[in-house]
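WARN retry 2 of 3 for item q-0093 after timeout on previous attempt; input resubmitted unchanged.
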Amino acid sequence: MYQQIDAYVQRLIRESTPEATVWNIEKVRQGKSASWNYIDGCMMTALLAMSEITGERQYEDFAEQYIDWFVSEDGNIFSYEPEKYNLDDINEGRVLFPLYRKTGKEKYKKAARILRQQLEEQPRTAEGSFWHKAIYPNQVWLDGLYMAQPFYALFEREFGSGDYADTLRQIETVRLRMYDAEKGLYYHGYDASRTAFWADPVTGCSKSFWLRSIGWFAVALADLAEILPAGKEQTRVREILVELMAGVSRYADPDSGLYWQVVDQGGRDGNYLETSGSSMLAYAMLKGARLGVLDKAYAAKGEKTFRGIVDRYLSFTDGQLNLGGICLVAGLGPENNRRRDGSYAYYISEPVVQNDAKGVAPFLLCYTEIKRL
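OK item q-0093 returned
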């Protein structure tokens, strides 16, 4: 199986260039040209992890070639638009740190500083949380914690003053505002102004527990548990990860170990076991157990989920290996897109695709943790 997965990733690399990656299904479908984006960024993170665990240079080489194409000598990033204040655009910057350590190219450090400047200017809620994007005023999405906070912490560790208090404050705000203690789950979004059409007028939270959003948050916590140095910030992040895993693991499908697109609605008509979020939770469990944050039993839970994904969604079609069961995209609003209302009906209505990096990258990160067992 390992050789098949390696061959699968190598095929995706062969078929991709910086100008056009086959795993960015959104861009492929929309016919859009290359841009700096979180989808490819997730894949670059996964490829660097693949290179580390396998010792194969081809994964790292592709990631470096890709980032090198986007970053000019002065550190400017092709197609990056800081005025959009889009946290998604921060995510890809996390690979700049290992590439800078490897190559010593100053342009990577300069690019990291440009992205860090966006965070300096990013609009915030009254409580101090980053807006998810300029077009989503006062909104905090779980996705954004993954997109921004690991980069933020890495920058502080590598080039900053080592102050992680802001990262912890924003995570604590999410814990305070978006966590449902009875369910043990986090809502996808929170509008601090409580004016968005999808937001509860009292709590500000969205309606449902979307799997991939919880997965993004879980991966952010697991990565931060490793990035942050020993201290109060690391301790608290680890506590929140332990709490989240205890809550969400209750909803695993007992047969496959996978999780449902709308997490707490298992078996409901239209709901399905989804690959990307399941991979993210499995990765967080495996990594958390490896770091000693989670009980070792979570490694077995994560491995079961990984095996379930392989059995259910990794298959030979059209003469080659493909990964299916991936929700293409989901979000909340904006005002002119009221279909994205955070309801159960909405989440199950989005397209399900194969080989999209939002599923492939977490699956590969999970795979690298499996290989560490």
